[in-house]
Design a protein that fits this description.
OB fold (Dihydrolipoamide Acetyltransferase, E2P); 3 helices; mainly beta; 448 residues
Length: 448
């Protein structure tokens, strides 16, 4: 009897087990069916052209093949459906939003960052782009920070919106020209490329010259701040524009009322340090940039008088090209001509230093500079900085262990040195601007 009951109990438990398991889904999807559903696998599509745009997955894969933080050299086309919006701004004329292949937030999300609207024109209303819109984007792209694929700010626009286009074309990638020197300035393409190679927030260790025509003015020169921000390109058009951020005026001075302002179409040369701001915006560095020349659209060229340009010597040391960081306290500089400069504070808390304001080396009272050369030096000419109406020549109070000190215009001249080794000392006993020697260039003449 017990055996029969036991058999019945086993049978009952088996039946209950099978019944209970019938409605429990498998812990994984079964390909081609299983659980009565289908799996969806994203596939990268497109080659980035207008006829075959990348889908979000394909553009992400392409961007990950780029070096981190470096903009793509070419413009690419990307197609998708807006899955969420971050900022659609008529005020700033651009839009930031995410797209996916199907408009949902579950698939690959690609970040469209600060692009212009249809026809490469500014966004005109805050609802110009909405969730569910189908878009085709034309833009350069970047792997921002090495982990965020996105479009490059200011280098993209909406080519098509829900099937509508307004004549936008693929912007020219342009040809980089120039080496950044005064004689051969960068064009906007070369400046963008140089800055884009930097890490996020990193700036160049020296200043470069950049030439172009003004595309648009973001902030004109004003007496309040004395600086201006504008975009330049080779031909004054939007393609390949470079952002000149808060540059000072001619002569590395603040702009004042009555001076010519910058305008669209002007041809300019600027000199400044470059930075990859936030890892996605190549631009000049505020406070380390100034206008070298300004040719008004339809007008003449304005350039400041450059002290020392008419003085010839055997060797010139231009401080702006020294590759020093702002506010660097100086100890020793070895120049390319085999000349060594050794600096000392002389007991003053203010020690010899380099500042980008004026691009000058500052020598305060009691500070010294020791010159050591392989060849005997006949004379030195210090081209002194002029700033806000003050001439920083230490009022001529510079003594030398060899030679005689005189002032000639904005230059401080040490003549009759005839030595391979000598020391200069700032002997000024006054305070403020008259006590400082600030020089932007040293012109060396060797004994014949």
């Amino acid at each position: 009897m017990k055996k029969i009951l036991y058999t019945m109990l086993v049978a009952l438990m088996t039946a209950f087990t099978f019944t209970s398991c019938e409605d429990v889904p498998a812990p994984y999807d079964i390909p081609n069916g299983g659980n009565g559903g289908e799996t969806t696998t994203e596939v990268a599509e497109g080659n980035g052209t207008v006829d075959s745009p990348y889908n979000p997955l394909a553009v992400v894969q392409y961007i990950k093949s780029l070096e981190a933080g470096v903009n793509s050299s070419d413009y690419v086309y990307i197609k998708g459906i807006v899955s969420s919006t971050k900022e659609i701004s008529a005020q700033f004329g651009n839009a930031s939003f995410y797209i996916s292949a199907d408009g949902t937030t579950t698939g690959t999300q690609f970040y469209v960052y600060r692009v212009k609207g249809l026809g490469n024109k500014n966004i005109a209303s805050d609802d110009e782009v909405k969730v569910g819109d189908e878009v085709i984007i034309c833009a350069k792209v970047v792997n921002y920070g090495g982990n965020t694929p996105e479009t490059v700010q200011g280098e993209g626009y909406i080519y098509a919106l829900n099937g509508k286009t307004e004549g936008g074309t693929t912007p020219s990638t342009g040809q980089a020209t120039g080496d950044g020197s005064k004689e051969n300035p960068f064009n906007s393409v070369a400046a963008n490329q140089m800055a884009s190679k930097l890490a996020s927030g990193e700036k160049t260790d020296k200043q470069y010259y950049i030439k172009g025509k003004v595309v648009s003015v973001k902030e004109a020169f004003s007496a309040q701040f004395g600086n201006a921000s504008f975009y330049i390109s080779d031909d004054g058009k939007e393609d390949n524009k470079f952002y000149v951020f808060r540059t000072l005026y001619l002569g590395n001075e603040k702009w004042t009322e009555g001076k010519t302002n910058v305008a669209v179409g002007d041809e300019v040369v600027v000199c400044g340090s470059l930075i990859n701001y936030m890892g996605n915006t190549p631009e000049t560095v505020q406070g380390e940039t100034y206008l070298v020349s300004l040719k008004s659209n339809g007008g003449g060229t304005e350039t400041p008088d450059t002290p020392g340009d008419d003085i010839k010597g055997d060797f010139e040391y231009v401080v702006a090209n020294c590759g020093l960081e702002n506010a660097t306290k100086l100890s020793t500089l070895t120049l390319t001509d085999g000349l060594t400069l050794t600096f000392d504070g002389g007991g003053n808390n203010s020690v010899p230093s380099f500042y980008t304001t004026g691009n000058a080396i500052r020598i305060y009272p009691k500070n010294t500079i020791k010159f050591e050369s392989a060849k005997s030096i006949e004379s030195l000419v210090f081209v002194c900085d002029e700033y806000n109406g003050a001439l920083y020549n230490a009022s001529g109070d510079i003594s030398s262990t060899s030679g005689k000190t005189t002032i000639s215009g904005s230059n401080l001249v040490i003549s009759g040195i005839n030595s391979k080794e000598f020391t200069l000392t700032n002997t000024s006993t006054v305070t403020g601007a008259p006590s400082q020697l600030r020089f932007t260039k040293v012109i060396v003449t060797y004994k014949k």
